[in-house]
Amino acid sequence: MNLNKQEIETWLRETNSDRLSELWQMADRVRRRSVGDAVHMRGLVEISNHCRRRCGYCGLQAGNSRVPRYRMSAIEIRSSAAEAFSYGFGTVVLQAGEDTGIEGEWLADIIRTFKRETGLAVTLSLGERNEEELALWREAGADRYLLRFETSNRDLFRAVHPPLKGAASNRFDLLRHLRELGYETGSGVLIGLPGQSYNSLAEDICMFAELDLDMVGSGPFIPHPDTLLGRGLGFDLLPPEEQVPNTALMGYKVLALTRIVCPEANLPCTTALTTLNTNDGLESGLMRGANVIMMNLTPLTLRPFYEIYPEKSCFTEEPAETWPRLKNILEALERSPGRGPGGRKHGLG
Ligand code: SAH
């Protein structure tokens, strides 16, 4: 099934609950037909919160002197990542701020050893790194790379994600390059950025299909007080009828529509969604198109410092408590933890 941009925008503006139930059901049907009932588990390790960028949305931005900075050691990374193996997950995701202190060879070595010892899939989410590093990590065995393009509106992107001196950022080029290197590529956007219109969000969703992404994760924008956007500086809202709200409901609409336009992609129920809907955020996501859960394996002592937005829903719980809780949720939904690495399956259904 395919939706055009106008139809997508109409769905994004839909408020009627019966119509929205239809959208959820449609997404759930497409999910079941295209990727089945398995829910792939990823263990997320936030390996460093150093960052050279000054993104207007993110609490880790370089100008935020309030956040104590950390970079996990190779041994710490290995032991957190090994937890993914012990829970039977297929993938570990290594995420960080754009930290040049994470050196090419150093990380390549960690990836190589981890792959050799566990055989798990490795996903990287380290921002805009140079071509040599990306090639090196791919050769070392990294399987996937996540890089959200955040918004396809160029002016808005530049405003919320200022370029480094003398180096324009083009995340679309980088995504293409990652694909050429043989990475499975993932992207996504922020939902409800000040200045983001319905039309532009509909364009983002069309882009997901056009880029033929293997993974798409999007979540509502949650203001952080130590950022420009969080302080309401320098960015104007659009008229209310044009401005996308940064709500959980809008997050679900984007998730469901993404499933419909990218039937075979792996779609996580993102932490931003479960943060905004602590009640049944995860269940709803899994019933509205999602087939992936990222479980946080960062040591509890470090988690408060990886505060990209406030009140992230995973600050206080040990993985040993989280995992049984998640398993119960899956069981109640008659879904089962995925087996194997859980890469994108092409041409199913
Ligand atoms: N440095 C890496 C990883 C960033 S964290 C990179 O830039 O790719 C992963 C994602 O968190 C970002 O891509 C962004 O979409 C999301 N994020 C950052 N700040 C956020 C906020 N305030 N609210 C919601 N999501 C946010």
Topology:
Elements: H1 5-13, H2 17-35, E1 38-48, H3 74-86, E2 91-96, H4 104-118, E3 121-125, H5 131-140, E4 144-146, H6 154-160, H7 171-180, E5 184-187, E6 190-191, H8 198-210, E7 215-216, E8 219-220, H9 248-261, H10 271-276, H11 281-286, E9 292-296, H12 319-332, E10 336-337
Parallel strand pairs: 1-2, 1-9, 1-10, 2-3, 3-4, 4-5, 5-7, 6-8
The protein binds S-adenosyl-L-homocysteine.
S-adenosyl-L-homocysteine binds at residues 57-58, 95, 97-98, 125, 127, 147-148, 150, 190, 219, 221-222, 224, 272, 308-309.
Précis, in short:
The chain is α/β, with parallel strands linked by helices. It contains 12 helices and 10 strands.
Describe this structure in words.
The chain has 349 residues and is of the alpha/beta class. The protein has a single domain, classed as Alpha-Beta Barrel (TIM Barrel), CATH 3.20.20. It contains twelve helices and ten strands. The strands form two sheets. Strands 1, 2, 3, 4, 5, 7, 9 and 10 form an eight-stranded parallel beta sheet that branches. A two-stranded parallel sheet has the order 6-8. β1 (38-48), α3 and β2 (91-96) form a beta-alpha-beta unit. α1 crosses α8, α2 (17-35) crosses α9 (248-261) and α8 packs parallel to α9. Bound molecules: S-adenosyl-L-homocysteine (SAH). Residues 57-58, 95, 97-98, 125, 127, 147-148, 150, 190, 219, 221-222, 224, 272, 308-309 line the site of S-adenosyl-L-homocysteine.
